[in-house]
Write a structure and sequence with these properties.
With 220 residues, the protein is of the alpha+beta class. It has eight helices and six strands. Strands 1-2 form a two-stranded antiparallel ribbon. It has a two-stranded antiparallel sheet with strand order 3-6.
């Protein structure tokens, strides 16, 4: 069985990204092998399940629990960015718990991770999950792999953890895209149980212009 060249490139991108990363909140690559034309990865086992499942069972999450999770995500993403790696598909399904205590998270799935250089160049494309996708990807004003893409996704995740709702919704894909492009979502200030620092944080992240989006340093 022949593997298309683009698939081989994608597989080795994931392999290389994972080999270079070493962080307690990033899943470890233990081994890899080729089986009948398919590249298989042996990953660290995370028995605690997806953050998405935990949220829909227990959410909205208390602010202290949300803080612990987001702090781990931010530190892991900082490690990625310091290694010139953009995840590009941060979402609830790609964040697992290492065990049933639901205290330590692991970011997974670097299959579409993009490389970037500080000059602003990098891999291009609209890969990712729609509801977590930054507006510059959808309107094609900036498809380069930059840290701002992951930061936007972190903002979406924070909103979801605290409200048990995705910020950008719609009956159709087109409506979701329009709401993202126009930054149309129910303000967190409308949720009485959420404190002002979280409201300010999310509003600082979910900004149309990536140059005005809060940095990881400011988030933390």
């Amino acid at each position: 069985m022949d593997i298309p060249t683009d698939k081989i490139t994608q597989l080795y991108s994931e392999l290389q990204a994972l080999r270079e990363l070493n962080h307690p909140s990033i899943v470890k690559l233990l081994d890899n092998f080729n089986a009948k034309g398919k590249m298989c990865f042996v990953m660290e086992y995370c028995s605690g399940g997806e953050l998405k499942h935990h949220l829909y069972e227990k959410g909205p999450l208390p602010e202290d629990e949300c803080y612990s999770i987001i702090l781990q995500i931010v530190e892991a993403v900082r490690q990625c960015h310091n290694s010139n790696i953009i995840h590009r598909d941060l979402k609830l399904e790609n964040i697992l718990f290492s065990d049933a205590t639901h205290s330590r998270i692991k970011i997974v799935d670097f299959g579409i991770a993009g490389m970037f250089v500080r000059a602003g160049l990098g891999s291009k494309g609209n890969a990712g999950s729609l509801r977590y996708m930054a507006p510059e990807i959808l309107n094609e004003s900036g498809t380069s792999s930059t840290p701002a893409l992951d930061i936007w996704s972190i903002g979406v995740i924070i909103y979801a953890l605290l409200t048990k709702r995705m910020p950008f919704r719609g009956a159709t894909r087109e409506e979701v895209i329009e709401n993202i492009q126009n930054i149309q979502y129910k303000p967190m200030s409308h949720y009485r149980h959420i404190s002002k620092p979280w409201v300010k944080l999310v509003s600082g992240i979910l900004r149309e212009d990536p140059t005005f989006r809060w940095s990881l340093r400011r988030i933390n």
